[in-house]
Design goal:
The protein is an alpha/beta fold. It has three domains: about 70 residues, Alpha-Beta Plaits, CATH 3.30.70; about 80 residues, Met-10+ protein-like domains (GMP Synthetase, Chain A, domain 3); about 170 residues, Vaccinia Virus protein VP39 (Rossmann fold, 3-Layer(aba) Sandwich), CATH 3.40.50.150. The protein has ten helices and 17 strands. The strands form four sheets. A seven-stranded mixed beta sheet has the order 13-12-11-14-15-17-16, sandwiched between helices. Helix 5 crosses helix 6 and helix 8 runs parallel beside helix 9. The chain is elongated. The N and C termini lie far apart (about 70 Å).
Length: about 350
């Protein structure tokens, strides 16, 4: 409902100067929206200015008038989850609240320090209240581990489920975060790689998971062939569903199995581009990736972890040696960059490598 208020009415040409002055004097009603018409700006005030205030205003902006008008109220700001916890957890723990939150679809994933474990339910409920699009809050209950790169989660608030629909760059991905690895923090990187692909390329995604790289590439180009490989049966089931969901059935070919064996059996010499997003073990698959590339060569998108004692330059050297051992060579210095932080003093990196 509009609310009537005392206001400053001033020609538009003087609007910026008036706002700066009124802000300094702390007389603007911040709960109401400033409005304008063809000629004037109307600034709602908290109260009618005193004679002294009015004298200062008119001295600085002689063309202003004090009037009344109707104003729309500003939307109420949603409290952050940490603000909602004020008084519900000890103040000494406020600094330990997680600042890094992964949102996958309508699921929020957080990591709680040991001292917050007794307050996890309150934290989860506060997150649900602060984030209207979140329906479930999961707390990490272990590290990513195993061949399938999975971790355990504890449901601390909301709907008891781990399956969600995640949207990214015009694509939809159905994923069970407890059964298939998926990181929303790679959204920019997936879009970057997709933008480098050219029409009529053949792309092999060696460790595709639920298909975020493969599907985005196929969604972006009409004349590509993408072979999407994964060894995790659960991830493979979601991959097939995501291919159908995004209507890229004719361009993405899902394959279940070990990447090395698949390449040895069927995929030698077919690829213009190979995606190697298995940072823990990508170096062990360089031979298979090079074998996948066409005889004339192609591009590897090689993902790895680096830390304070294992630099990008050192990883470039190890990659060059692995490519050389496969009978290939790197055409020029790789494009290498940090993608994201994964732990204190540890980062995920990517090396874009032209191989001949």
């Amino acid at each position: 409902m509009p609310k009537r208020s005392t206001c400053i009415k001033v020609p538009k040409i003087c609007g910026e100067k008036t706002l700066v002055l009124a802000n300094k004097m702390n007389i603007i009603d911040k709960e109401l929206e400033i409005k304008k018409d063809d000629r004037y700006i109307y600034v709602p005030l908290r109260r009618k200015p005193s004679e002294a205030t009015l004298k200062t205003l008119t001295h600085q902006v002689s063309s202003m008038q004090i009037s009344t008008s109707s104003f729309q109220e500003k939307p109420k700001r949603t409290s952050t989850y940490s603000e909602l916890l004020d008084g519900k957890i000890p103040k000494r723990l406020q600094a330990s609240l997680p600042h890094s939150i992964d949102i996958i679809g309508d699921i929020a994933i957080i990591e709680l320090s040991p001292e917050l474990q007794d307050h996890k339910k309150s934290i989860g409920e506060a997150m649900l209240k602060a984030s209207k699009n979140v329906r479930t809050v999961l707390a990490k209950a272990g590290a990513v581990s195993g061949t399938y790169r999975l971790r355990e989660f504890e449901i601390i608030a909301g709907e008891p489920r781990t399956v969600t629909m995640h949207k990214e760059h015009g694509c939809q991905f159905l994923v069970d975060v407890a059964k298939a690895y998926f990181s929303p923090r790679l959204s920019y990187e997936r879009n970057r790689v997709a933008s480098l692909v050219k029409e009529h390329e053949t792309v092999v995604d060696l460790f595709t998971g639920v298909g975020p790289f493969a599907v985005q590439i196929a969604k972006k180009y009409e004349n590509v062939e993408v072979y999407a490989i994964d060894v995790n049966p659960d991830a493979f089931d979601f991959l097939k569903r995501n291919i159908r969901l995004n209507r890229v059935d004719s361009r993405v070919h899902p394959i279940l199995g070990d990447a090395r064996q698949i390449v040895d059996d069927n995929m030698a010499g077919i690829a213009d581009r190979v995606i190697m997003n298995l940072p823990e073990k990508s170096i062990d698959f360089v031979g298979a990736a090079c074998k996948t590339l066409k005889p004339g060569g192609g591009v590897l998108h090689f993902y790895c972890f680096v830390n304070a004692s294992d630099s990008l330059e050192a990883m470039e050297q190890r990659l060059a040696e692995a490519v050389g051992a496969s009978g290939r060579k790197i055409r020029k210095k790789p494009l290498s960059k940090i993608v994201r932080a994964t732990a204190p003093y540890e980062w995920q990196a990517v090396l874009d490598v032209e191989v001949v």
